[in-house]
Every structure is written in C-alpha cells, then in structure tokens.
Automatic annotation (TrEMBL):
This is Glucanase. Residues 1-22 form the signal peptide. It holds the Pfam family Glyco_hydro_6. One of its GO terms (biological process) is cellulose catabolic process. Its EC number is 3.2.1.-. The keyword Hydrolase applies. It comes from Lentzea fradiae.
Amino acid sequence: MRWIIRFTLPALLVLPVPSAHAASPIDLTSGFYVNPGSAPATWARTNPGDSRAARVQSSIGSKPIARWFGNDSDIGSAVANYTGAADGQDKLPVLVAYNIPNRDACGGHSGGGAGSAAAYRTWISSFAAGIGTKPAVVIIEPDALAAYDCLTAAQRAEMAGLLLYATEQLKAKAPNTYAYLDGGNPGWVAASTIAYRLNEAGIRNVRGFSVNVSNYYTTSQSATYANSVNGFLGYAAKFVVDTSRNGNGRGDGWCNPAGRRLGVTPQAGGGAEMLLWVKTPGVSDGTCGIAPTTPAGTFNPDLAIRLIDGT
C-alpha cells in the first residue's frame, strides 16, 4: 500500500509595503554637510570688508543649508559632484529637486522648471542617478502639491504623474537616500487634501514628506499639521520641518515679511524626523515685502541680518 501524505501550508500574511528601502543616511554619516558654496558663505567670503560679513558667516554661512537644483545643463554631474564632496567628508547633504514644469504656480516669483514632461523625466532620472548609493536627503519639488488649485486639470494630472515618476526614480536609483515629497504648510491646504495628493504622488515609494518649506510657521505648528496629514494618510509617514526662518513664527505674509528670525539649526529629531534649513536664510522670496527689488533666489545681506536679529 502506498501512503500519500499531504501538508497544508498556512495562509501567507499580506503585509503593507514599507515606505522606503533605504539604509539610514543619518546612520551612514557623521552630521550634516555644510556647503562652502552656499549663497551666504560665498557672499561673506567675497565681501570681507563689509561689517555684516562676519555675522552672516557665523550665523548662517557656517550652518548646513540645503542646496537647490534647477534646470542645470548637466544635472547628473552637478548632483554627483555635490553629494561626492559631502561623502568625502562623511557628511549628509540635503538637496532640493526644483525643476518640475509649472513650478511656483501660485506665487509666480520662482516660476519656470523643465520645458516639458519628457524633459523633466530625463532630468529627475539623472538627478537620482547622480546620487547613486551615496547617503543623501532630498526634498522633492517644494509647493508642487500645495499649488494644485492654481493649475488646470490637465496640468494637475501631469504634475501628479511626474511626481510619482520622481519617487520611483529615487527609490530605484538612490537606495541610501531619504526622500520627502513636499506637503506645503499649515496655512495653505487642508491636511486631508494634501494626504490625498501625497498618496497620488507616490509617497509610499519614499521616506515621507516635508512641511513649512520656505515658510515661517513654528516647528510645533508644523508638526501638528504633519501629524494631522498622517491621520488621513492612514500610516505614520516620516516628516521633516524647514526651520530656517521660523524662529518668530509666521507673522504677516509669506513673501519677505518683517520680524522673522532664524530657527533652530539642522538636527535629527526635535519633533520631526529632522529639522532642516531647506530655504537659504537671506535669499529673497521675490520682489516683495522688505526686499521689493530683490528677485526670488537672490541673496540679500540685509535680509540675512534681519533674520539674525529678528527684526
């Protein structure tokens, strides 16, 4: 007689896909990278006779500040060189990918971006490849998701697809990077709406999201907003807060308002996964507020001093 033995296998558990597969870039490095070529550091170095130079360098130029990358002619090499310089010092660089078509759709001061969807796909693919296996932090397209209401339906659909592609490229090509889709700020778009847009844009491909980029809300207000977004996302995505100019809170307006102050310097923890200086202190938001003749993206030492003094 031949016996037939059957084994019944237990049902497989279906677990949620983790939001990222990176090794921790924080653990792989010994602190944040200080860019000697940042706008405030460069200004202080090239204006040694200016009475403001030493204060600008001490309070801003010597601190870790994100570097923003736009429509560079050779983005892969630019990113590779920057992250390579940081890696050579065992430091963690923070980069901002800022080149999506129709960027700054609401404010308009920093408009531009890649000339087409195809050009952006090429650009962001090269951006991610430039990082490669080096440790890095990337903020993906500040204001893009929050500015949907200033776009047509076709533009929104295109942007959502491009952001999704960006998250896929960073996940595939930059395994030791923590990437964060930008989620606006507490005073702009409802948390439930941003959560929907983050999901649509592929937040589960990356580490999480950023809040308060280039704005002035306190860290506490920003963390409260981020936690509310997580409630609508349905899981605890990691988030980072831009503290570069939030030392006095928001005040009146978002475009070079008076009375703002530098926030706490970059660190891991502090009420978020990281507190970062994403916006460069002293760089204008546009031709507005207390810098009506300084174009967006231009360093103004008077703006820098006012942030140092809180005036």
